[in-house]
Amino acid sequence: MLLRVLTRLAVLLASLAVSSLVVFAFMAVLPGDPARVALGVNASEAAVQQLRSDFGLDRPLPTQYLEWVRGLLTLDLGESYISRAAIAPQVLDRAQVTLWLVGAGMVVAVLVAVPLGSLAALTSRSPLGVLLSAVSQLGVAVPAFLAGILLVAVFAVGLGWLPASGWTPPAQDPGRFLSQLVLPASSLGLVQGAVLARYVRSAVLEVLGEDYLRTARAKGLRPGPALVRHGLRNAAVPVVTVLGLQLATLLVGAVVVERVFVVPGLGSLLLDAVANRDLVVIQDVVMLLVAAVLVINFVVDLLYLAIDPRLRTAR
């Protein structure tokens, strides 16, 4: 058990190291001079060279890489080329917003997928099961930003129940915070919930054919209680894999959804940095998102060991 955890931890650290090299190399080979972009085309050569020296852009690339990695480890992410403001406070502030959005979206996805997928499996040979499968397939085809626009059109513009955009910190006004969180979280969660429901249905259908579940039903349990008591844990093993992938997809999807609902998260910060060609901000935010995806995969591996005892004892 301990050896498996240490092995996965070593893989995580190696993946983070390789990812940092790839992200830094990609930013380094982009054409153009960040100092020239920051100062404008009319800046003098002396001013450009001075700015390059201030930000360490005149040093060798290996030195720049090591300094950047040291800053990541110490949460000293440097300063923006454009605003000269410290990047770490901006990233931490925006990351809290994105975590709220992604977390709420994942809750919506699970609440939609588990009942919908389980019911679709239990009624797979009935018209209701066919209808549920068709609804989930339709949800897979709808992108998150389009779902967001439709939700705004119905619940914000048409009915006026919820605000169409904006963000209020939860400590400032909890009620307004929740009302502004509902639509963006639903646009993320409903789409990902439809995808996840397909996998839940397949996993539950496979479990329903197992001998132990037929034995439980032969003892008098109805299909639903038998599935809850004896089947869901076994069905959860393949679903956890997809759940981890879906969480990573939510992080990426939040970039677009934040723009649709004017939410000041990491996605908005990243798109603003791209528009301003603020490469150091892009580099830091991209690395943070990559690290989040790798950590999610690491946690999924640990969840395998927690859910399935056979993995803890197998050689």
From TrEMBL:
Keywords: Cell membrane, Membrane, Transmembrane, Transmembrane helix, Transport
Domain ABC transmembrane type-1 per the UniProt entry, residue ranges: 95-304
GO MF annotation terms: dipeptide transmembrane transporter activity
Principal location listed in the UniProt entry: membrane
InterPro entries linked to this entry: BPD_transp_1_N, MetI-like, MetI-like_sf
Cellular component annotations (GO), alphabetically ordered: plasma membrane
Family note: Belongs to the binding-protein-dependent transport system permease family.
Family matches, as PANTHER family: DIPEPTIDE TRANSPORT SYSTEM PERMEASE PROTEIN DPPB-RELATED (PTHR43163:SF6)
The name this protein goes by in its record: ABC transporter permease subunit
Native organism taxonomy: Bacteria, Bacillati, Actinomycetota, Actinomycetes, Propionibacteriales
